[in-house]
Amino acid sequence: MQLANVTQVYPSQAFTVLTASGYVVPQRKSALAPKCRAPGLLGVEEGSRVKKGDVVARLESQDVEAAKAQVAANLETARFNLENARAELAMRSSI
User: In this structure, what is the dihedral angle of CA atoms 16, 21, 27, 32, given to the nearest 10 degrees?
Assistant: First the structure.
């Protein structure tokens, strides 16, 4: 019977201790600002802590809806202009 010694070897990185000073800052931060600062418009006050699922504010969709309608109208105009150009090209090609 043969005897052997067994030892565990740890990498030096496993025992590294890091001491640092500084500030912990969020990776992402959101800044919200209402169009008018009427009391009660926002669901929270500046500096308040919020958690996932909290309603911070309600957004008015009128501006977005107007922009959407404008884009739809621009698209319709572009389609009309394209059809006119195609008709004009077809007319010139047949002459």
Answer: 170
pLDDT digits (tens, 9 = 90+) for 63-90: 889 999 999 999 999 999 999 999 999 9
Q: HSE of 82 in the Cβ direction (CA atoms, 13 Å)?
A: 6
* Cα–Cα distances in angstroms (integers) from residue 80 to residues 10, 73, 75, 88, in the given order: 74, 11, 9, 12
Q: Is the pLDDT of residue 60 over 90?
A: no
The answer for residues whose C-beta is within 8 angstroms of residue 55's C-beta and 6 or more apart is 43
The C-alpha R_g of the chain, in whole angstroms, comes to 33
Q: Could you tell me if 56 and 50 are in contact, meaning their C-beta atoms sit under 8 angstroms apart?
A: yes
Q: Rounded to whole angstroms, how far apart are CA atoms 91 and 3?
A: 101
